[in-house]
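Hi everyone, sorry if this is the wrong subforum. Our group has a chain we'd like a structural model of before ordering constructs, and none of us has done structure prediction before. Sequence below.
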Amino acid sequence: MMRNLGGGDSGHAKNVPRDIVECLREIVEMREEMKNERKNGMGKEAMKESETEVGEPSEVGVARIRKVWEIAKNPDVAAFCRVRLGLLESKYDVWSLESRDMEMIEQQGLGGDFLTVPKVDTHLHNSAMMTAKQLSKYMHYVYERDKDRVHGKDKEGRGVTIGETMIRNGFQPER
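Answer:
Right subforum, don't worry. Here is the predicted structure as tokens:
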């Protein structure tokens, strides 16, 4: 596992001072220990307590935080991590440049993202609505055009036309 600290084939891990490797190994061991505690359910009670009331942290938690802080303050570890982060950032930049065309093709195939979804606005203004005269004129137009068109069935299974439905609901074609 510690072989990967230096970046794989570069051989960088061989040049890492022993104290830095030991500090990073302690962090990894602490992480594994916490993962095992969570898996075995030992961390659930502590999490429930911390969610319901704000109290004193456990002694184990305080010791872990102090150890991590002590390791983070070590200038050798900080310098190593800064160089390692720069190396990983450079690798990401190279990957990004190499695969940008493939990424663009994949994104175009998704059919859009959240920002391109059309917005539905249900806010209406009176100026956008029909007047009574316009609505009446439109209803007469629809009646004349589609009065014989069947749009559904009644309870007996007989076809119901648009004209019958309009008249049943109070429309008067002679007005």
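For your construct planning: The chain has two domains: 2-116, 126-168. Residues 20 and 80 are 8 Å apart (CA to CA).
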